[in-house]
Amino acid sequence: MNMKKIIRKEEPIAKEQLIRLLLTLQEDATTAIGK
Q: Which residues of 1-35 are buried (b: 16+ CB within 10 A; e: fewer)?
């Protein structure tokens, strides 16, 4: 029971980290193409 609650709390954080990683990669790619 406790594990499920913990996982549910961590899921949004993991999604935010993935989105930030994708945005960072996009920025790096755009900068590389720009150069």
A: eeeeeeeeeeeeeeeeeeeeeeeeeeeeeeeeeee
Report field, pTM of the whole predicted structure over 0.85: no
Angle at 31 between CA 27 and CA 24, to 5 degrees: 20
Helix ranges (H only) for 1-35 are: 2-34
Residue 26: the pLDDT is: 92
Confidence at 7, pLDDT banded by 50, 70, 90: low
Distance CA 26, CA 6 (A): 31
